[in-house]
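Title: Comparing notes on inverse folding

I've been comparing how different people in this forum approach sequence design from structure. To keep things fair, I'm posting one structure and asking everyone to reply with a full sequence. Here's the target:
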């Protein structure tokens, strides 16, 4: 049995691929809804089931119905599922099950062959036993049973009375409705903290058999009940299973699964994609990439003015960011990605995700890279995977181990010549990553880093065999590299005209621009990139994540030379980019950085108002709000931005904007009454978000009464949000 391989041609045509991509997007929406409603275990199980069903299906000729019946056998077994320790994948598990079955049959057959011969006579067992009893004894026994039952009933009544007395001592009158059981808001605050803590830890489903074993092993009743509630049966996931035949759809499923659980992948979709839009729109917390851009905006704006940190954006970003590093979740994700690499071998984006998850799952006090052991293990299993070397070397450079990174890069590039053609075609990515790492490092002097980067780019441009850096390239080597890049760029342009745009060609274009920047000045590098963009129609540019990355590279090159570049060129380029990619956080960050230096705040406000009106999105409003709060703008202006965003028919469903608005009123304006009104509007607009409801318990404890908090809990139950904690648990702790 074989799992789906990356090299297999997809049998689906373009229309079927689009349908399957749409199915994956709908599936992701369902998982987000379940997760945000508090059913984290179900969302996790849905991902596990669909990945096993689509990526690791046995290569048997089965109907869809038979396939589901076979999968039910796997799901109901105690075998580890994707992401769990020891998981093998459905296909491999079935192989081993078949091997074990055949082995048992063989053993039984050989055991039966050893038997034989006459075993002698045996006395038949009597069908009836003498069980006659004295009728008087039976009557006495019946009377004894009745007396025992009466005693047990009296004991139950006494226990009920004792329980009622105990509850009254706790201040709980069982004869009164549940809404009046808690009179102290601090109890509800503690309840919300416990509830959040359990949401944080109880996201992993429990196997049915392991739950039964835990009860047999004498686990306390409370813990056993929690385990039982976390069991996800096959019936819970069976209706959501669907097969995927196209490579793109299966990779989309895995990529969105990785980002769902908190590891951001290298750019794999364009910000104009509906998948990106839906992801941003459905956020409850902001991902690190957006948080970093917002914090960069804040740092730029506060440098030139004395703004109190109390008005800082940090209050809001901390309240809507996910600061928790879930070690167990990162281990789960690492295991899942490593298993998925069997279905997508040599996919450097998945390999990078596995290394990042490994880093987030380990706490290190020394300077070593946390993912070093995993990277070495992966490289031992496949020494031809040079892109994995490049990904690993970049991680070393990020952690400041540039010497280690250089050794890995040098080893990978030195071995490229002896590799098959399919591996050689990705060499430009390695060269580009290496050159970027050298230029970004601060451990060496700028001149040495530039010389090293120039040597790397010379080897790529001249197509000479790579040798580690010894000295600055000679003028002859530079000339050969210059001519080589010219020829290579001609081939790239021809390929782009035909619509063939991939990672390697974009990396080669960036490398050629870097070479021109280092040898002839950045103007020549910009000119080369401008020529490359002319080879692609605007419509294709707006859909390609590769070309979006290239445009970011273009803007960053301009921003590196603010004094030498004309303001009009920088400004025009950023505005052009926002026309093509109107929801790009990186371009809005560049816009604020440029406008802060060259334009007035009022002009920037007018621009944000224009974007908010013409192309409203969560990203636009986040940057508009960040600009005002960081600049110390008026409360009237900030309130106006929030209100304009949340009266939008679509944006009023954005949980992250509501949470930011509540946090602004609580932490910055210190107006809990206004925050209370906003909170009630928020839960009316987004009733599925459990995190939003719990914000009321935690942030509005000073303004909401115990009765209101109790009523909120009842409404949460009515909305069928998953509540893990009974308030009586909190009361019994006192």
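Reply #1:
Here's my take.
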């Amino acid at each position: 049995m074989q799992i789906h391989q990356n090299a297999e041609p997809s049998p689906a045509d373009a229309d079927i691929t689009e349908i399957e991509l749409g199915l994956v997007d709908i599936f992701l929406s369902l998982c987000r809804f379940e997760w945000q409603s508090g059913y984290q275990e179900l969302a996790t199980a849905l991902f596990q089931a669909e990945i096993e069903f689509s990526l690791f299906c046995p290569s048997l000729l089965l109907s869809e119905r038979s396939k589901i019946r076979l999968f039910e056998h796997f799901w109901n077994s105690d075998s580890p599922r994707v992401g769990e320790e020891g998981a093998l994948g459905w296909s491999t598990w079935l192989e081993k099950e078949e091997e074990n079955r055949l082995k048992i049959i063989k053993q039984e057959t050989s055991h039966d062959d050893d038997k034989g011969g006459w075993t002698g006579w045996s006395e038949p067992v009597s069908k009836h036993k003498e069980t006659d009893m004295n009728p008087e004894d039976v009557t006495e026994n019946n009377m004894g049973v009745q007396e025992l039952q009466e005693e047990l009933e009296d004991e139950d009544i006494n226990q009920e009375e004792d329980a009622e007395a105990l509850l009254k001592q706790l201040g709980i009158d069982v004869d009164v409705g549940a809404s009046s059981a808690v009179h102290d808001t601090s109890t509800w605050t503690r309840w919300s903290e416990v509830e959040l803590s359990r949401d944080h830890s109880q996201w992993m489903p429990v196997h049915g058999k392991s739950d039964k074993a835990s009860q047999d092993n004498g686990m306390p009743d409370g813990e056993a009940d929690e385990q039982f509630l976390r069991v996800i049966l096959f019936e819970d996931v069976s209706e959501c299973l669907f097969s995927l035949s196209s490579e793109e759809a299966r990779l989309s499923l895995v990529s969105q699964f990785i980002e769902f659980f908190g590891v951001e992948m290298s750019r794999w979709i364009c910000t104009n994609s509906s998948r990106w839009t839906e992801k941003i729109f459905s956020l409850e917390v902001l991902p690190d990439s957006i948080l970093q851009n917002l914090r960069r905006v804040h740092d730029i704006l506060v440098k030139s003015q004395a703004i109190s940190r109390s008005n800082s954006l940090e209050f809001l970003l901390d309240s809507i960011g996910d600061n928790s590093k879930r070690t167990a979740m990162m281990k789960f994700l690492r295991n899942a990605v490593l298993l998925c690499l069997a279905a997508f071998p040599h996919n450097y984006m998945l390999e990078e995700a596995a290394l990042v998850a490994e880093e987030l799952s380990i706490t290190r006090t020394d300077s070593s890279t946390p993912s070093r052991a995993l990277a070495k293990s992966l490289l031992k299993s496949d020494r031809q995977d040079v892109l994995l070397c490049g990904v690993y070397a970049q991680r070393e450079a990020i952690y400041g181990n540039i010497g280690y990174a250089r050794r890995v890069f040098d080893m990978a590039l030195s071995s490229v010549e002896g590799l098959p053609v399919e591996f050689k075609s990705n060499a430009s990515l390695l060269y580009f990553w290496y050159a970027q790492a050298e230029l970004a490092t601060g451990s060496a002097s700028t001149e040495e880093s530039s010389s090293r980067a120039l040597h790397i780019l010379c080897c790529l441009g001249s197509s000479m065999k790579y040798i580690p850096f010894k000295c600055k390239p000679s003028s002859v080597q530079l000339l050969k590299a210059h001519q080589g890049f010219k020829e290579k760029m001609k081939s790239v342009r021809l390929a782009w005209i035909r619509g063939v745009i991939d990672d390697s060609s974009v990396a080669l274009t960036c490398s050629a621009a870097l070479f021109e920047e280092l040898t002839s000045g950045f103007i020549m590098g910009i000119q080369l990139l401008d020529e490359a963009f002319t080879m692609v129609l605007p419509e294709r540019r707006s859909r390609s994540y590769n070309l979006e990355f290239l445009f970011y590279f273009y803007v960053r090159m301009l921003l590196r030379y603010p004094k030498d570049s004309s303001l009009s060129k920088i400004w025009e380029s950023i505005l052009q980019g926002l026309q093509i990619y109107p929801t790009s956080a990186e371009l809005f960050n560049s816009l604020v950085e440029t406008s802060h230096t060259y334009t007035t705040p009022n002009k920037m406000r007018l621009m944000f108002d224009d974007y908010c009106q013409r192309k409203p999105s969560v990203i636009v409003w986040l940057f508009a709000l960040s600009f005002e709060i960081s600049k110390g703008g008026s409360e009237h202006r900030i309130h106006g931005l929030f209100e304009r965003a949340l009266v939008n028919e679509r944006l009023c469903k954005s949980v992250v904007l509501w949470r930011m608005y509540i946090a602004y009123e609580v932490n910055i304006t210190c107006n809990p009454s206004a925050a209370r009104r906003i909170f009630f509007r928020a839960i009316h607009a987004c009733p599925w978000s459990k995190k939003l409801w719990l914000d009321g318990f935690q942030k509005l404890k000073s303004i909401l009464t115990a009765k209101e908090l109790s009523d909120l809990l009842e409404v949460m139950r009515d909305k069928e949000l998953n509540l893990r904690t009974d308030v009586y648990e909190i009361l019994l702790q006192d």
